[in-house]
Specification:
binds flavin mononucleotide; alpha/beta; 223 residues
Length: 223
């Protein structure tokens, strides 16, 4: 069965962003996907300190529940990242989570998966934030199918809410369709190839201090 994981970066479990994320998950479930939602705000999230242990050993120095979220992400076929616009970007919770996924970027651990970005904003920039979430997913090797973005109309209320939620449900359905048909996006394949070329050099340069990622690349036949 197709599995879709939603990761909420808003501190509000009943706020604006979750409305839109739930609509995406609803759309995916209506197409027969098994859906699950994780709230980052429930974790005692620690910051990445750039120690390099993930590259060297494949595990993080922090034990705060992020590894379990990462396992669910790798186990899913589709990943939806959702955040409100905070200062023209994602929330600190979402950014901390992304930083903790450095090994996922270096080893493209979401290869073969599909993703989508969800964002809300008070005054604007919601599409940019959702686009940034998708950029992150592509850095991890996933292909992204689109975004759902809406402006807030108040607490737990979106502007043109019915249309926004309908757009969210359509995105969820399309995500499941992309997963089922193994959809390919040639422009994203080019982006992946260019990034992999740069990453290959980095992985080779870091080999001595980062054996885990070097061995992963070797095992995948990418070196
Ligand atoms: C710290 C903070 C920063 C924000 N920065 C922006 C911003 O730069 N641009 C904007 O349009 N809205 C901004 N907002 C408004 C939120 O993006 C908006 O209210 C959002 O819908 C809240 O979603 P939530 O209910 O899921 O938390 C900010 C809100 C907070 C609390």
């Amino acid at each position: 069965m197709v599995k879709v994981l939603g990761i909420l970066g808003s501190p509000h479990a009943q706020g604006n962003t979750v409305l839109l994320l739930d609509a995406v998950l609803e759309g995916a479930a209506a197409e027969g996907a098994e859906t699950e939602k994780v709230e980052l705000a429930k974790l005692d999230l620690r910051f990445c300190i750039g120690c390099g242990r993930c590259y060297a050993a494949g595990s993080c120095i922090h034990d705060d529940g992020v590894a379990a979220v990462q396992r669910r992400m790798v186990d899913a076929d589709g990943v939806v990242l959702a955040s409100p616009n905070y200062m023209h970007s994602v929330t600190a919770q979402m950014k901390a989570f992304m930083d903790r996924c450095s090994l996922h970027v270096h080893c493209f651990l979401l290869t073969g998966k599909y993703g989508a970005g969800v964002a809300t904003a008070g005054g604007g920039g919601e599409e940019r934030v959702a686009g940034f979430e998708n950029e992150f997913l592509r850095l991890c090797g996933a292909q992204t199918v689109g975004i759902a973005a809406a402006l807030a109309a108040g607490p737990a209320a979106l502007r043109d809410q019915e249309a926004a939620l309908a757009g969210g449900r359509d995105l969820g359905a399309d995500l499941v369709a992309a997963i089922r048909e193994r959809r390919q996006y040639p422009d994203q394949a080019e982006e992946h190839a260019a990034f992999a070329g740069r990453m290959k050099q980095l992985v080779a340069r870091m080999a001595e201090h980062a054996p885990f990622q070097y061995e992963y690349w070797e095992k995948m036949g990418w070196l």
